[in-house]
């Protein structure tokens, strides 16, 4: 067994090995991610290595852009249909030439572990080895053992949640259900992500709301009809296996408006007269509405605030959303969440999992909040923070106040299917090291640490995200 990321101190390392061995054998629960459900619905062979590993990975393309290599040279599609690089080997060579840029980054860790554990590649990537590694991965992708469903089995994934908007027809999840892979209690489930119909500043928000009405048969020209349409879509998502919602707001602000006030804001938005302050107020109000709906239908809420979306405007204008142009910013939770928590924070029917891109809030705000409200849980370090260093700091920052059992377990939040087992493995190794230190310092008995690491790896995410439960 590799000692990767386990403590260097010999006593702690020995304990961590025992704990990691327990975690390593647990199935993967992936309750939040962005893998295309069509990947598993179609079960078609993966494309070439570049399109599997480089083109969709904004961690990779973002780093290369920072060194002057435009995404078009890496095969990232352009919004206007302009031709971009298409030859997988050429893209791969370009990537390998700049492999040194990833020294010390979690991207290098994930990629090297993926090369080794998924494809059996142990040679170090570089210009001299690029073609050989490309050929090795390409040859693997041509075999039935590397089809998506076969890898799903090999990765020991028990449940994988994808993320769809209310405008999605859920046809790919219907196909998965037909094949015995999806639906309530299925192996691949959906997640309700309503940002594009809740955020007035989202591109073509009014058009999205109109389409929501067409899909549901509700009159979304009125605020009342809009709420009915959202409830209807939530029911559709539950029927497709959803156990949670996801909200990617700019801030964690919540606001209690009267129906009359909310309707007036909504009307201003539809007419194109809403100000940025109106848009933020409506987002804040809708978080409270979504909490109400979660109490009604049982869906777990996830809140992922703090991303300044499309900060790199040129990148967004050229290539669109989710290609590496977002930047974290500070988020305030204590005052922002208070209206929602005053209303529902002690209601055991609500389950709200909080994430942050601002690790300064771990100790000061998030751990005390999760340690003081029945409805709150802390999500794992996410996105810009899902590195070994921050994972360690997270446990150190929150455990004293929130304990282990007000945290929700690891979420991989990835579009890169082949990196899922690697990311979960990294989290399990970090937790093994943290628990080993507690044992070595005589702060926790070994048998309790053993129970805790299995809870963190498997039982907690399954319980908190209601995986396998009937809503």
From TrEMBL:
Its EC number is 5.3.1.12. It catalyses: D-glucuronate = D-fructuronate. Coiled coil: none annotated. Pathway: Carbohydrate metabolism; pentose and glucuronate interconversion. One of its GO terms (molecular function) is glucuronate isomerase activity. SUPFAM superfamilies: Metallo-dependent hydrolases. It comes from the Bacteria. Keywords: Isomerase. One of its GO terms (biological process) is D-galacturonate catabolic process. The keyword Isomerase applies. The keyword Isomerase applies. Belongs to the metallo-dependent hydrolases superfamily. Uronate isomerase family. This is Uronate isomerase.
